[in-house]
Amino acid sequence: MEEMQILDAVERYLANEMPVEERAYFEQLRKTNPEVDQLVVEHSMFLQQMDRFSDWKQFKSTLNEVHTQLAETGSIRDKAPKATVIQLWKKYQRVVAVAACIAGITALTISAMVYYFTPKPVSEIRLLSQELDKVKMKQQRTEQKVTLIEKSGATSRPTADPKSGGTGFLIDGKGYLVTSAHIVADADSVYIQNIKGDYFKVSTLYVNKQTDIAVLKIVDNRYQSIKSLPYALQKNTADLGEEIFTMGFPRPTSEIVYNKGYLSAKTGYNGDTTTYQLAISANPGNSGGPIFNHSGEVIGILSGKQTTAEGVVFSSRTKNIFTALHEIRKDSTNEDRIKLLLPSSIKGLDRVQQIKKIEDCMFMVIRY
Is 136 helix (H, G, I), strand (E, B) or coil? Predict the structure, then answer.
Protein backbone atom coordinates (compact mmCIF):
# COMPACT_ATOMS: atom_id res chain seq x y z
CA MET A 1 0.00 0.00 0.00
CA GLU A 2 2.84 2.36 0.84
CA GLU A 3 4.40 1.78 -2.59
CA MET A 4 1.09 2.63 -4.27
CA GLN A 5 0.85 5.83 -2.22
CA ILE A 6 4.39 6.84 -3.21
CA LEU A 7 3.65 6.12 -6.88
CA ASP A 8 0.46 8.18 -6.64
CA ALA A 9 2.45 11.03 -5.08
CA VAL A 10 5.01 10.81 -7.89
CA GLU A 11 2.29 11.03 -10.55
CA ARG A 12 0.68 14.04 -8.83
CA TYR A 13 4.09 15.65 -8.45
CA LEU A 14 4.92 15.24 -12.15
CA ALA A 15 1.45 16.44 -13.13
CA ASN A 16 1.93 19.55 -10.93
CA GLU A 17 -1.22 18.65 -8.97
CA MET A 18 0.32 18.93 -5.49
CA PRO A 19 -0.42 21.82 -3.11
CA VAL A 20 2.55 24.10 -2.47
CA GLU A 21 3.30 22.70 1.02
CA GLU A 22 3.04 19.07 -0.07
CA ARG A 23 5.23 19.75 -3.12
CA ALA A 24 7.92 21.36 -0.93
CA TYR A 25 7.85 18.36 1.41
CA PHE A 26 8.08 15.95 -1.52
CA GLU A 27 11.05 17.80 -3.06
CA GLN A 28 12.85 17.60 0.29
CA LEU A 29 12.07 13.87 0.39
CA ARG A 30 13.69 13.52 -3.06
CA LYS A 31 16.88 15.14 -1.78
CA THR A 32 17.16 12.88 1.27
CA ASN A 33 15.85 9.61 -0.21
CA PRO A 34 17.70 8.40 -3.34
CA GLU A 35 15.13 5.66 -3.97
CA VAL A 36 12.26 8.18 -4.21
CA ASP A 37 14.35 10.45 -6.43
CA GLN A 38 15.17 7.51 -8.73
CA LEU A 39 11.47 6.57 -8.88
CA VAL A 40 10.56 10.11 -9.96
CA VAL A 41 13.18 10.07 -12.72
CA GLU A 42 12.16 6.63 -14.01
CA HIS A 43 8.43 7.47 -13.94
CA SER A 44 9.05 10.75 -15.75
CA MET A 45 10.95 8.90 -18.50
CA PHE A 46 8.14 6.32 -18.72
CA LEU A 47 5.49 9.03 -19.17
CA GLN A 48 7.61 10.71 -21.85
CA GLN A 49 7.89 7.42 -23.75
CA MET A 50 4.14 6.89 -23.49
CA ASP A 51 3.51 10.39 -24.87
CA ARG A 52 5.87 9.75 -27.80
CA PHE A 53 4.16 6.41 -28.52
CA SER A 54 0.74 8.08 -28.45
CA ASP A 55 1.93 10.80 -30.86
CA TRP A 56 3.34 8.14 -33.20
CA LYS A 57 0.05 6.17 -33.21
CA GLN A 58 -1.91 9.36 -33.95
CA PHE A 59 0.45 10.26 -36.79
CA LYS A 60 0.16 6.77 -38.28
CA SER A 61 -3.63 6.95 -38.09
CA THR A 62 -3.63 10.33 -39.85
CA LEU A 63 -1.41 8.97 -42.64
CA ASN A 64 -3.78 6.03 -43.18
CA GLU A 65 -6.78 8.38 -43.42
CA VAL A 66 -5.03 10.61 -45.97
CA HIS A 67 -3.96 7.56 -48.01
CA THR A 68 -7.54 6.25 -48.07
CA GLN A 69 -8.93 9.61 -49.22
CA LEU A 70 -6.35 9.94 -52.02
CA ALA A 71 -7.04 6.39 -53.16
CA GLU A 72 -10.81 7.05 -53.25
CA THR A 73 -10.39 10.19 -55.37
CA GLY A 74 -8.05 8.38 -57.77
CA SER A 75 -5.08 10.63 -56.96
CA ILE A 76 -2.95 7.58 -56.19
CA ARG A 77 -3.02 3.94 -57.20
CA ASP A 78 -2.41 1.17 -54.66
CA LYS A 79 -1.18 -1.30 -57.29
CA ALA A 80 2.39 -0.77 -58.42
CA PRO A 81 3.27 -1.20 -62.13
CA LYS A 82 4.44 -4.66 -63.08
CA ALA A 83 8.17 -5.19 -63.30
CA THR A 84 10.46 -8.11 -62.78
CA VAL A 85 13.17 -8.09 -60.13
CA ILE A 86 15.89 -8.30 -62.76
CA GLN A 87 14.49 -5.34 -64.69
CA LEU A 88 14.27 -3.23 -61.53
CA TRP A 89 17.84 -4.19 -60.51
CA LYS A 90 19.26 -3.24 -63.91
CA LYS A 91 17.38 0.04 -63.87
CA TYR A 92 18.25 1.11 -60.34
CA GLN A 93 21.57 -0.70 -59.75
CA ARG A 94 23.63 2.51 -59.49
CA VAL A 95 21.05 4.21 -57.27
CA VAL A 96 20.99 1.25 -54.87
CA ALA A 97 24.80 1.22 -54.63
CA VAL A 98 24.91 4.94 -53.75
CA ALA A 99 22.10 4.50 -51.22
CA ALA A 100 23.93 1.58 -49.59
CA CYS A 101 27.09 3.69 -49.21
CA ILE A 102 25.13 6.56 -47.66
CA ALA A 103 23.36 4.16 -45.29
CA GLY A 104 26.67 2.66 -44.19
CA ILE A 105 28.23 6.06 -43.49
CA THR A 106 25.09 7.17 -41.64
CA ALA A 107 25.11 4.03 -39.46
CA LEU A 108 28.76 4.55 -38.52
CA THR A 109 28.15 8.21 -37.71
CA ILE A 110 25.14 7.42 -35.53
CA SER A 111 27.07 4.68 -33.69
CA ALA A 112 29.93 7.10 -32.97
CA MET A 113 27.51 9.76 -31.70
CA VAL A 114 25.71 7.28 -29.47
CA TYR A 115 29.01 6.10 -27.96
CA TYR A 116 30.22 9.67 -27.43
CA PHE A 117 27.06 11.05 -25.86
CA THR A 118 26.01 8.00 -23.84
CA PRO A 119 26.78 8.70 -20.12
CA LYS A 120 29.57 6.46 -18.89
CA PRO A 121 28.79 4.39 -15.77
CA VAL A 122 30.10 5.96 -12.55
CA SER A 123 30.35 4.73 -9.00
CA GLU A 124 27.53 5.94 -6.77
CA ILE A 125 29.97 6.63 -3.93
CA ARG A 126 32.80 9.07 -4.41
CA LEU A 127 35.58 8.90 -1.85
CA LEU A 128 36.58 12.36 -0.71
CA SER A 129 40.33 12.12 -0.86
CA GLN A 130 41.87 15.06 -2.69
CA GLU A 131 43.99 14.91 -5.82
CA LEU A 132 46.42 17.62 -4.81
CA ASP A 133 47.23 20.45 -7.22
CA LYS A 134 50.89 19.87 -8.05
CA VAL A 135 51.61 23.51 -8.87
CA LYS A 136 50.13 24.84 -5.65
CA MET A 137 51.86 22.16 -3.60
CA LYS A 138 55.21 23.08 -5.17
CA GLN A 139 54.63 26.74 -4.34
CA GLN A 140 53.71 25.86 -0.79
CA ARG A 141 56.75 23.60 -0.51
CA THR A 142 59.01 26.51 -1.53
CA GLU A 143 57.42 28.80 1.06
CA GLN A 144 58.06 26.25 3.81
CA LYS A 145 61.64 25.47 2.76
CA VAL A 146 63.36 28.16 4.84
CA THR A 147 61.37 27.26 7.97
CA LEU A 148 62.20 23.57 7.62
CA ILE A 149 65.92 24.26 7.22
CA GLU A 150 66.06 26.52 10.25
CA LYS A 151 64.50 23.91 12.53
CA SER A 152 67.03 21.52 13.99
CA GLY A 153 66.47 17.91 13.13
CA ALA A 154 63.87 18.79 10.51
CA THR A 155 62.62 15.80 8.54
CA SER A 156 62.83 16.44 4.81
CA ARG A 157 59.82 15.68 2.65
CA PRO A 158 59.96 13.48 -0.46
CA THR A 159 61.03 15.24 -3.63
CA ALA A 160 58.23 13.54 -5.59
CA ASP A 161 54.85 15.19 -6.08
CA PRO A 162 52.09 14.14 -3.66
CA LYS A 163 49.46 11.72 -4.98
CA SER A 164 46.46 12.58 -2.82
CA GLY A 165 45.46 14.14 0.45
CA GLY A 166 42.82 14.32 3.12
CA THR A 167 42.28 15.12 6.78
CA GLY A 168 43.33 13.49 10.04
CA PHE A 169 42.85 14.22 13.75
CA LEU A 170 44.56 13.22 16.98
CA ILE A 171 43.08 10.54 19.21
CA ASP A 172 46.06 10.61 21.59
CA GLY A 173 48.17 13.67 22.27
CA LYS A 174 51.36 11.59 22.06
CA GLY A 175 50.99 11.64 18.28
CA TYR A 176 48.39 9.06 17.24
CA LEU A 177 45.92 10.06 14.56
CA VAL A 178 42.90 8.66 12.74
CA THR A 179 42.11 9.22 9.08
CA SER A 180 40.35 7.40 6.22
CA ALA A 181 41.97 4.19 4.98
CA HIS A 182 41.52 5.10 1.31
CA ILE A 183 43.82 8.11 1.77
CA VAL A 184 46.88 6.21 3.01
CA ALA A 185 46.37 2.68 1.70
CA ASP A 186 49.27 1.47 -0.47
CA ALA A 187 51.17 4.74 0.08
CA ASP A 188 54.95 4.85 -0.31
CA SER A 189 55.14 7.41 2.51
CA VAL A 190 52.75 9.66 4.44
CA TYR A 191 53.26 13.11 5.91
CA ILE A 192 50.97 15.41 7.85
CA GLN A 193 50.82 19.19 8.11
CA ASN A 194 49.29 21.30 10.88
CA ILE A 195 47.62 24.71 10.58
CA LYS A 196 50.97 26.41 11.22
CA GLY A 197 52.46 24.77 8.14
CA ASP A 198 54.72 22.36 10.02
CA TYR A 199 55.29 18.94 8.39
CA PHE A 200 55.76 15.66 10.24
CA LYS A 201 56.54 12.17 9.04
CA VAL A 202 54.05 9.49 10.13
CA SER A 203 53.92 5.71 10.01
CA THR A 204 50.80 3.64 9.38
CA LEU A 205 49.87 1.38 12.31
CA TYR A 206 46.50 0.08 11.11
CA VAL A 207 44.45 0.09 7.90
CA ASN A 208 40.98 -1.36 7.41
CA LYS A 209 39.61 -0.70 3.93
CA GLN A 210 36.23 -2.23 4.79
CA THR A 211 35.48 0.27 7.58
CA ASP A 212 37.68 2.94 5.92
CA ILE A 213 39.69 3.54 9.10
CA ALA A 214 43.44 4.07 9.40
CA VAL A 215 45.52 4.80 12.52
CA LEU A 216 48.76 6.76 12.10
CA LYS A 217 51.65 7.54 14.42
CA ILE A 218 53.90 10.62 14.22
CA VAL A 219 57.54 9.48 13.97
CA ASP A 220 59.22 12.87 14.06
CA ASN A 221 61.28 14.09 17.02
CA ARG A 222 60.18 17.66 16.37
CA TYR A 223 56.59 16.88 17.34
CA GLN A 224 55.58 18.11 20.80
CA SER A 225 52.93 16.06 22.59
CA ILE A 226 49.60 17.56 23.61
CA LYS A 227 48.77 16.76 27.23
CA SER A 228 45.00 16.49 26.81
CA LEU A 229 42.70 16.67 23.80
CA PRO A 230 39.62 18.91 23.99
CA TYR A 231 37.20 16.42 22.43
CA ALA A 232 36.18 12.81 23.08
CA LEU A 233 35.03 9.75 21.15
CA GLN A 234 31.33 8.97 21.47
CA LYS A 235 30.59 5.34 22.30
CA ASN A 236 26.80 5.46 21.88
CA THR A 237 24.86 5.69 18.63
CA ALA A 238 24.15 9.24 17.50
CA ASP A 239 20.55 10.47 17.28
CA LEU A 240 18.65 11.03 14.05
CA GLY A 241 18.45 14.74 13.26
CA GLU A 242 21.31 15.56 15.62
CA GLU A 243 23.24 18.69 14.67
CA ILE A 244 26.81 17.96 13.58
CA PHE A 245 29.84 19.84 12.28
CA THR A 246 33.13 18.92 10.67
CA MET A 247 36.52 20.46 9.96
CA GLY A 248 38.92 19.51 7.20
CA PHE A 249 41.34 20.51 4.47
CA PRO A 250 39.55 20.60 1.09
CA ARG A 251 42.08 23.17 -0.12
CA PRO A 252 45.74 22.41 -0.97
CA THR A 253 46.82 24.62 1.92
CA SER A 254 46.92 24.30 5.70
CA GLU A 255 43.73 26.33 6.07
CA ILE A 256 40.89 24.57 7.90
CA VAL A 257 37.38 24.73 6.44
CA TYR A 258 34.33 24.36 8.72
CA ASN A 259 30.91 22.96 7.74
CA LYS A 260 27.79 22.05 9.69
CA GLY A 261 24.76 19.86 9.05
CA TYR A 262 22.75 17.07 10.69
CA LEU A 263 22.55 13.28 10.91
CA SER A 264 20.06 12.25 8.23
CA ALA A 265 20.14 8.45 8.74
CA LYS A 266 21.56 6.04 11.30
CA THR A 267 22.78 3.74 8.55
CA GLY A 268 24.89 4.43 5.49
CA TYR A 269 24.72 3.40 1.84
CA ASN A 270 22.34 0.46 1.28
CA GLY A 271 21.67 0.23 5.03
CA ASP A 272 25.32 -0.21 6.09
CA THR A 273 25.26 -0.32 9.91
CA THR A 274 28.96 0.61 10.26
CA THR A 275 28.36 4.06 8.76
CA TYR A 276 26.10 7.09 9.09
CA GLN A 277 24.38 9.15 6.41
CA LEU A 278 24.88 12.88 6.83
CA ALA A 279 23.37 16.00 5.33
CA ILE A 280 26.42 18.26 5.16
CA SER A 281 28.62 19.96 2.60
CA ALA A 282 31.79 17.97 1.83
CA ASN A 283 34.46 18.18 -0.84
CA PRO A 284 37.58 16.25 -1.87
CA GLY A 285 40.08 16.68 0.95
CA ASN A 286 37.45 16.28 3.70
CA SER A 287 37.98 12.52 3.88
CA GLY A 288 39.26 11.47 7.29
CA GLY A 289 37.85 14.55 8.99
CA PRO A 290 36.07 14.10 12.34
CA ILE A 291 32.30 14.52 12.63
CA PHE A 292 31.47 16.28 15.92
CA ASN A 293 28.17 16.60 17.74
CA HIS A 294 27.23 19.80 19.60
CA SER A 295 29.02 18.58 22.75
CA GLY A 296 32.34 18.23 20.94
CA GLU A 297 32.28 14.43 20.75
CA VAL A 298 33.48 12.62 17.63
CA ILE A 299 30.62 10.48 16.27
CA GLY A 300 32.21 9.53 12.93
CA ILE A 301 34.94 9.97 10.34
CA LEU A 302 33.92 11.49 7.00
CA SER A 303 34.45 9.08 4.12
CA GLY A 304 32.57 9.76 0.88
CA LYS A 305 29.51 11.19 -0.84
CA GLN A 306 26.82 9.77 -3.09
CA THR A 307 27.15 10.91 -6.70
CA THR A 308 23.52 10.19 -7.63
CA ALA A 309 21.97 12.36 -4.90
CA GLU A 310 22.70 15.92 -3.82
CA GLY A 311 24.07 16.52 -0.32
CA VAL A 312 24.23 12.83 0.73
CA VAL A 313 27.48 12.18 2.63
CA PHE A 314 28.64 9.10 4.55
CA SER A 315 30.93 8.65 7.54
CA SER A 316 32.45 5.67 9.29
CA ARG A 317 31.25 5.33 12.90
CA THR A 318 33.51 5.91 15.91
CA LYS A 319 32.90 2.31 17.00
CA ASN A 320 35.22 1.39 14.13
CA ILE A 321 37.98 3.38 15.85
CA PHE A 322 37.47 1.38 19.05
CA THR A 323 37.66 -1.81 16.98
CA ALA A 324 40.91 -0.60 15.41
CA LEU A 325 42.43 0.15 18.83
CA HIS A 326 41.42 -3.31 20.04
CA GLU A 327 43.12 -4.89 17.03
CA ILE A 328 46.29 -2.87 17.66
CA ARG A 329 46.38 -4.00 21.32
CA LYS A 330 46.02 -7.64 20.27
CA ASP A 331 49.22 -7.41 18.25
CA SER A 332 51.84 -8.61 20.75
CA THR A 333 54.63 -7.20 18.59
CA ASN A 334 53.20 -3.71 18.81
CA GLU A 335 54.47 -1.63 21.72
CA ASP A 336 52.07 1.25 21.13
CA ARG A 337 49.80 2.12 24.02
CA ILE A 338 47.12 4.50 22.83
CA LYS A 339 45.30 6.29 25.62
CA LEU A 340 41.60 6.81 24.95
CA LEU A 341 40.28 10.35 24.97
CA LEU A 342 38.92 11.82 28.19
CA PRO A 343 35.40 13.30 28.33
CA SER A 344 34.99 16.35 26.11
CA SER A 345 36.17 19.59 27.73
CA ILE A 346 34.49 21.81 25.15
CA LYS A 347 30.91 20.79 25.95
CA GLY A 348 28.84 23.90 26.55
CA LEU A 349 31.19 26.26 24.71
CA ASP A 350 29.98 28.22 21.72
CA ARG A 351 31.02 26.93 18.32
CA VAL A 352 33.76 29.52 17.73
CA GLN A 353 35.50 28.58 20.99
CA GLN A 354 35.12 24.88 20.22
CA ILE A 355 36.80 25.32 16.85
CA LYS A 356 39.71 27.28 18.34
CA LYS A 357 40.44 24.46 20.77
CA ILE A 358 40.06 21.72 18.15
CA GLU A 359 42.08 23.15 15.26
CA ASP A 360 45.50 22.45 16.83
CA CYS A 361 44.61 18.74 16.78
CA MET A 362 43.75 18.73 13.08
CA PHE A 363 46.18 17.82 10.30
CA MET A 364 46.27 17.67 6.52
CA VAL A 365 47.27 14.14 5.51
CA ILE A 366 49.51 13.95 2.41
CA ARG A 367 50.11 10.67 0.59
CA TYR A 368 53.19 10.02 -1.57
Answer: helix
